[in-house]
Amino acid sequence: MTPWLTLGIKAVNGGLFVVLFSLIAEMLEPKRFAGLFSAAPSVALANLIVVILAQGHGDGIANTRGMVIGALAFSLSCLVGVVAVRRWRALAGSSALMVVWLALALPGYAVFLR
Amino acid sequence: MSEPVVAVEPGKLKKIRGRDVAVRFAFGAAVSILAGLASIIFNPVFGGLFLAFPAILPASVTLIEEKESTGKAADDIEGATVGALGLAVFAVVTGAVLRRTSAVLALAAATAAWLVTSVAVYLVIESLLRRRALSRAAEPGRPGPPVARQSAHGPRPA
Fold first, then answer.
1. A28 strand-pairing partners
2. Distances (CA, A) of A34 to A63, B43, B111, B143
3. pLDDT less than 70: residues of chain A
4. Whole-number percent of chain B with pLDDT over 90
5. A55 to chain B nearest CA, in Å?
6. Which of B19, B77, B78 to substitute to test the interface with A, most A CBs within 10 Å?
7. In angstroms, what separates the C-alpha of B5 from chain A's closest C-alpha?
8. Do A36 and B82 make contact, defined as CB atoms within 8 angstroms?
9. Residue B8 bridge partners (DSSP)
10. Of B31, B60, B72, the CB nearest to A38
């Protein structure tokens, strides 16, 4: 399987898993509980299935090492995101959240995983 | 009356627009491509960072703000804070179990670990918040029972 075909399968798989988890979230109340599913392992499951099948356990394990740092950065950036969304509304606040994620995840990778 | 701690409302699925589903599909596909490219160009550990990239969040909170309010969108991110902690547990469990057994078992165990961790932490935090709200309401001089937080912003105009 070529890397580009693998990438295409990951993309379709990722889209489907995200839609599946978002449909579950849509049914849940209150929004604070539904929010758990905004951080569901949808993209992770979609990608890890393809990575493990196409490249083996080694690459999957390597992916999960990076994912630990990414997930911790996700949680910390959400703390900033809550304040940012209340102050600047959803689009600007959640964009700020992504910037904070990058500011935490990239140095986190450089310090702990490189 | 205060909100329930957890409620399932399947009827809400009927209100989902095709455009919202398409937006979420596109975001999921885009993040997967980003993670895949990062693995190809750099290495799988670096690519793994993007398996926990919050790129889907702007799409979902913007839709929540459109349909409900900014306060509800912020509530969703509060939940995501806890869900992301569960995501770290998911990654640790996948890595550990994958070393010993099959991928199916590893991913099933990790998904269960994400769900159990996230829901347990959510329930603990929610019960602490509700207990604090009740004791504040019982203080002399404080009017009325606790109510759900209101946003300064209402839903966006259509």
1. B8
2. 26, 33, 16, 30
3. none
4. 74
5. 11
6. B77
7. 7
8. yes
9. A28
10. B60
Shortest Cα–Cα distance, A59 to chain B (Å): 6
**DSSP bridge pairs for B7:** A29
Look at A35 and B107 and tell me if their CB atoms are within 8 Å: no
Nearest residue of A to residue B107, measured between CA atoms: A45
Q: What per-residue confidence (pLDDT) applies to A24?
A: 94
- Using alpha carbons, select from A104, A77, A108, A82 the residue that is nearest to residue A93: A82
How many residues are given for chain B? 158
Interchain contact, B80 vs A52, CB within 8 Å: no
H or E, element range at A28? strand A28-29
CA B156, CA B150: separation in Å to the nearest integer? 15
The stretches of chain A forming alpha helices (DSSP H) are 3-27, 31-34, 42-55, 57-88, 90-112
Give me the residues of chain B with pLDDT under 50, please. Answer: 1, 150-151, 158
Which pLDDT does position A15 carry in this prediction?
Answer: 96
3-class SS letters over chain B:
CCCCCCEECHHHHHHCCHHHHHHHHHHHHHHHHHHHHHHHHCCHHHHHHHHHCCCHHHHHHHHHHHHCCHHHHHHHHHHHHHHHHHHHHHHHHHHHHHCCCCHHHHHHHHHHHHHHHHHHHHHHHHHHHHHHHHHHHHCCCCCCCCCCCCCCCCCCCC
pLDDT at A113: 93
Report the pLDDT value the prediction gives residue B158, as an integer from 0 to 100: 44
ipTM reported for the complex, 2 dp: 0.96
